[in-house]
Amino acid sequence: MFYVYNICVILMNLSNEGDKIEVTRENTDSIVFSVINKFMERSTFGMKKYGTNLDRTDLSVLDWIQHAQEEHMDAILYLEKLKKEIGKENKSNPNGENSV
After folding, report:
1. Cβ atoms of residues 37 and 1 within 8 Å
2. Are 10 and 34 in contact (CB under 8 A)?
C-alpha cells in the first residue's frame, strides 16, 4: 500500500505547458490532503491488482460509462446497508444516543 507520513507531494499537469502544483499538509486542509492520499492509495492498489491505470486506451467510452455505473450501483448498495444499520441502532437506542 501507499503510505504518506509527513508530506504528500502530488504533481499534476494543469496545462500543456506542464504547470505543476504541490499539495502538502502545509498548503491544504486535512480533508483535501486525506482524499488525495486515498486517491494515491487506490491508484497503487489498481496498478498492483489490474496491472493498468486510467491512462489505458483499450476501453471505449461506453465501457468507461459501464464501469462508472457499476461503481455507483455498488455505492448505492453500501449506503442502503448503512441506512439499515443506523436504523437498527436507532431502534435499540430510543434515547438518541447513537454510536455514529
Report:
1. no
2. no
